[in-house]
Design brief:
The complex is a heterodimer of chains A (217) and B (235). With 217 residues, chain A is mostly helical. Helix content of chain A is 54%, strand content 11%. Chain A contains seven helices and five strands; from the N terminus they run ααααααββββαβ. In chain A, the strands form two sheets. Chain A has a three-stranded antiparallel sheet with strand order 4-1-5, with helices on one face. A two-stranded antiparallel ribbon of chain A has the order 2-3. The longest helix of chain A has 39 residues. Chain A is elongated. Chain B is mainly alpha-helical. In chain B, helix 2 packs across helix 3, helix 2 packs parallel to helix 4 and helix 3 packs antiparallel against helix 4. Chain B is flat. The two termini of chain B are 12 Å apart. The relative contact order of chain B is 0.10. The chains are: A mainly alpha (217), B mainly alpha (235).
Chain lengths: 217, 235
Amino acid sequence: RPSPRQSAPARSRGMSNFGVKGASLVTDIAQSEKGTIPPYNDELARAVVDESQEHHRSILRLIGDIQAAGASLDEAKPDDAAAILVHHQAVLRNKRALLVYLNERMRRVRQLRWEVGTGLPEAVGENLSHSERSFFTQYAALVNKYQGRRGGVGLNLTLDPAPPRDHKVQVRVLEEYGEIVTKDGVVDLAKNTVHLMWRDEAQPLIAEGVLEKLDDH
Amino acid sequence: LGTRAFQMDEEEDLASQLGPRTSQVHDTDVSKLKRAFVNEKCAPEILPFEFDLVQRVVAAVDSRESVVASARASASTGPSSAADDLQTHVFQSELNRVRFLLRAYYRTRLFKIENHAVWTLKEPAVLARLSTLEKEYATNYANVVEEHFGSVLGQMPEGYGSMLQQIEEQDAAWDMVPEPNLDKHVFCLVKQDRGDVMLDPDDPENTMDLERNDIIMIRYRLIKTLLEDNAVDLM
């Protein structure tokens, strides 16, 4: 019943670029600099989801047309079956693109907990979606629990990313930090001063950027 | 591969500084832990958790730590010999290195759990290799991920919202669960004479003569059982 002319409007609706938005979303994260998290592309992600909803409506309409014509789905003409299949695969492709995007960003957000700690830097937090910020908080709590003394292994797992060489390190203070209490007593971390500190006490401060490790020559 | 070679040099440094290379007779807990860590680092899948070994090492670390702490306390209040100071220094270095091994062992396993959380939870043979704390971690992690993905997948059309199946179908397989690649190639050190061994069931004629101290490079899947039998170590 649908005449060739009736299918022309569908083509002019721009449905011929299936998967382009999804590919664009994947490129967004693939081309970003490793170790950074670009701003969450909410607009594009929504567009991919909306496009999927449109595909789904097409599927339902096609099924409806077949059943209205009195046929069962098994008896559908090859053209109609093919059309349904193409829309279905288009949704799956979009879903895959969305998950690649979310998954890679999630991997980088996890990395933050190990490199920076439980405090999310404001500059990074701005680039995350609401759900990603929530994920970070929950993930950080999971790691904390696993590391903790009660109900955990009782060992700070973010220390020693590499095998240790010395147990004291020479560090220089980059940012004024004030006095801290260490195993050796009170140390005043005034800007640009050099100290010999225990490695495990210095490490978190080095990671935060307060201290700079001075290499032995 | 360049990065791994660098880390391996660090490991060698560590071992040689801990003392002469230990023979099989004097197989200390620390060297066992080091092997467990290296195996874990090289294997594509998670290996059985070395519960007893870790417990012993943690106990030893705790007791050594209190020895060092009291030695340092008495050194700061009274006289101490150069020999005592040196011993404290050596103990402290050893403590740092053993703690590194523990941390790295736990970390490597956690990352494997994160990368294949759903797979780990749904395969009983794999789940059995986790410690109780790790099982808890795996479950909670999978839930947190599901919630996060759900924030977007929940907007997808009906039937397309699952992170386990592409399209939701009763009694169909979960086709969206990644699993570790057991066909990854690994280097192995053979620890026992095994003679002619048939490694590949798809190629039964092609046997390999495995003798102690042989080093082979082979697909992980084919030496998985030998690793479980402690006949090889990964490197």
